[in-house]
Design brief:
Blueprint (H helix, E strand, L loop, with lengths): L2 H16 L5 H17 L4 H16 L5 H20 L11 E6 L6 H14 L4 E6 L6 H11 L4 E2 L7 H7 L1 H4 L4 E6 L7 H14 L3 E7 L6 H11 L4 E5 L7 H10 L4 E5 L7 E3 L2 H9 L4 H12 L1 H12 L5 H13 L3 H7 L4 H6 L2 H19 L3 H5 L2 H5 L1 H11 L3 H20 L1 H5 L4 H14 L3
Parallel strand pairs: 1-4, 1-5, 2-3, 2-4, 5-6, 6-7
Antiparallel strand pairs: 7-8
Helix pairs in contact: 1-2, 1-13, 2-3, 3-4, 4-13, 5-6, 10-11, 15-18, 18-21, 22-24
Bound molecules: guanosine-5'-diphosphate and magnesium ion.
Magnesium ion (MG) binds next to helix 5.
Length: 453
C-alpha cells in the first residue's frame, strides 16, 4: 500500500534527521523527491506544491537554527501530510445501527458490506447483511456466499425486483440484530435512477450511516465522485477499497479530504480481514515506518545528541569501552521509551519489529532493567574491566546476590558487552582515527542488529 510514497517519506525524514547542515542542495533534493513521490501517489499537484513551499520557506527561515529547524521541518511535514489526509471520523455505534453502502458498479460495495459485518461481529456485535442489489442477477447470491463463509447471516430474495419490498419482507428477522449492513445496487455512473433508488431506500430504511464505496484506483477522480454523491445523498462517510492494488491511493484519500467526505474504512485486499479503520495519524505513522510525531522528534534528538556523540567518540578513539558505556547506551534506550519504538528508530529494524511479539519486547525491556541493576552492584574495577568477572566467577555470584539478578542474566550482559566490544574494535573507523556522525549511525545500527531478541 503506497509503498513508494512510504519509502520516499522514510528517506526524507532520515535525510533531515541525519543532516548536520540543512543546506540548500540537500533541501532541494528533499523537496524534489517529496514532490515526485506525492505526485506519483496521485496527490493533486497544487496540494503538493503548497506543502513543499511551506517546507522550503521554513527551511530557509534564518531565524530558526540547528536542531530547532529540523524539528520544525519534520513537524511541518508531518502536520501538512496529516492535513491533506483529512479528519478522522470514527463511527459511534448506537443501540440499533443500519449502514447503507452505496456506489457504482464494481466499486466494492458487496465485498465491503461483508468485511464490515465481520469487523463488527468479531467485536461482539450481532450483525447481519441484507442484499438490496436487484439489478444484477448474481448480486444477492454473491453477498450470501461471502456471508456464509464467515457465518454472517445474510437476507436476500433473488426473485423480488423491488428492493423496498425485500427490506419490508425481512423486518421481523432483522429486529434481533444491532447492526445491519445494507448492500445496494450500483450503476455505471451516478444517474437519476440511482439517486432516486437510494433516496427512496433512505427514507424507508433510515440508516444511521450512508457510506460511499469507492476504489482507490480511481485516484483523484474520487473527488468528483464524492462531491456528486454528497450533493445528491446524505453521505456520512467513505470506504476506499483496493488500496492494495494501486499506487494512486494518495489521490483518493486526499480527494476525499478536500471535499470533506471522511474516510472511515479502507479495503486492503480481497479477503474479509483486509479492512482497516482509517485514521490519518496512524496511517501516516505507518507510511513513515515509525511511531508518532514524538518518536520522530526523538529520532532527531537521538541522532544529533552532539555532546553524547563527542563523548563516545573520544572514548572509542582511546579504545575504551566499558560497562559504563554500555550502561549509557541502555539508559538512552530506556529514555527513548518502549522497546518497540526504539526498534523502529533503528534503520532497517522497522520490519523486524513486526515479527517480534509484544511479550518478547517486554522481556527485552525487562532484560535492560536487569542489566542495569547488575551493573549497580559491581565495583568500579569490574565495570572498567569486565573481563575479570569471567576469570573469577565468584564475583558473578556476589553481584547476583547483591542485585537480586540471576547469574544467567549477568552472563548474558557480559556476552552482550563482549560482542559489542569486539564489534567496535573491528570497525575500520578506529584505525582511521576519525568518527563522523555517519559512523556513529552505522554503529547504532549494528548495535541494534546485534541485540538478540
Ligand atoms: P460491487 O459491485 O460494488 O458490489 O463490488 P464488489 O464487492 O463485487 O467488488 C468488485 C471487485 O473488487 C471484486 O472482485 C472484489 O473482490 C474486489 N475488491 C473489493 N474490495 C477490494 C480490496 O480492498 N482489495 C482488492 N484487491 N480487491 C477488492
Ligand atoms: Mg455488489
Amino acid at each position: 500500500m503506497l509503498e513508494k510514497l512510504s519509502a520516499v517519506l522514510k528517506k526524507t525524514t532520515d535525510k533531515i534527521a541525519n543532516a548536520i547542515f540543512l543546506d540548500k542542495n540537500l533541501l532541494d533534493s528533499i523537496i524534489k523527491d517529496l514532490q515526485r513521490a506525492l505526485i506519483e501517489a496521485d496527490v493533486n499537484v497544487p496540494l503538493v506544491l503548497e506543502l513543499t513551499q511551506k517546507i522550503k520557506k521554513a527551511a530557509l527561515d534564518e531565524r530558526i537554527k540547528g536542531l530547532e529547524k529540523k524539528e520544525h521541518i519534520i513537524k511541518l511535514l508531518h502536520d501538512e501530510l496529516i492535513s491533506i489526509l483529512g479528519q478522522k471520523r470514527e463511527i459511534k455505534l448506537e443501540k440499533k445501527n443500519i449502514f447503507m453502502l452505496v456506489g457504482l458498479f464494481g466499486f466494492g460495495k458487496t465485498t465491503s458490506a461483508i468485511k464490515i459485518a465481520s469487523y463488527y461481529s468479531k467485536r461482539g456485535h450481532k450483525v447481519c447483511a441484507v442484499g438490496l442489489d436487484v439489478h444484477r442477477p448474481a448480486a444477492a447470491e454473491q453477498l450470501k456466499q461471502l456471508g456464509d463463509k464467515l457465518n454472517i447471516p445474510v437476507f436476500i430474495n433473488s426473485e423480488e425486483k423491488n428492493p423496498k419490498k425485500i427490506w419490508k419482507e425481512f423486518q421481523p428477522e432483522l429486529k434481533e440484530y444491532d447492526l445491519i449492513l445494507v448492500d445496494t445496487a450500483g450503476r455505471d455512473a451516478l444517474d437519476d435512477g440511482l439517486i432516486k433508488e437510494i433516496k427512496d431506500l433512505n427514507s424507508l430504511i433510515k440508516p444511521n450511516e450512508i457510506l460511499l464505496v469507492m476504489p482507490a484506483d480511481i485516484g483523484q477522480a474520487a473527488k468528483t465522485q464524492a462531491q456528486k454523491f454528497k450533493e445528491a445523498l446524505n453521505i456520512t462517510g467513505v470506504i476506499i477499497t483496493r488500496m492494495d492494488s494501486t499506487a494512486k491511493g494518495g489521490g483518493a484519500l486526499t480527494a476525499c479530504a478536500e471535499v470533506k467526505a471522511p474516510v472511515i474504512f479502507i479495503g486492503t485486499g480481497e479477503k474479509s480481514i483486509d479492512l482497516e479503520t482509517f485514521d490519518p495519524e496512524s496511517f501516516l505513522s505507518r507510511l513513515l515506518g515509525m511511531g508518532d510525531l514524538k518518536t520522530l522528534m526523538e529520532k532527531i534528538h537521538s541522532v544529533v545528541d552532539e555532546k553524547q556523540i563527542e563523548k563516545t567518540q573520544k572514548r572509542l578513539q582511546e579504545g575504551k569501552f566499558t560497562l559504563h558505556d554500555l550502561e549509557t547506551q541502555l539508559d538512552s534506550m530506556e529514555s527513548l521509551g518502549s522497546m518497540d519504538k526504539i526498534l523502529s528508530l533503528i534503520p532497517g529494524l522497522g520490519k523486524v519489529k513486526e515479527k517480534i511479539p509484544e511479550a518478547q519486547l517486554e522481556t527485552q525491556q525487562e532484560k535492560i532493567k536487569h542489566w542495569k541493576h547488575a551493573i549497580k552492584s559491581m565495583t568500579e574495577e569490574e565495570i572498567e574491566n569486565p573481563e575479570i568477572l569471567e576469570k573469577q566467577t565468584s564475583r558473578i555470584q556476589r553481584i547476583s546476590k547483591g542485585s537480586g539478578i540471576p547469574t544467567s542474566s549477568i552472563r548474558a550482559l557480559l556476552k552482550q558487552y563482549k560482542m559489542l566490544k569486539e564489534m567496535i574494535k573491528s570497525q575500520s573507523f578506529l584505525q582511521e582515527g576519525s568518527l563522523g556522525q555517519k559512523t556513529m549511525m552505522k554503529l547504532a545500527k549494528k548495535f541494534g542488529k546485534k541485540m538478540k531478541f
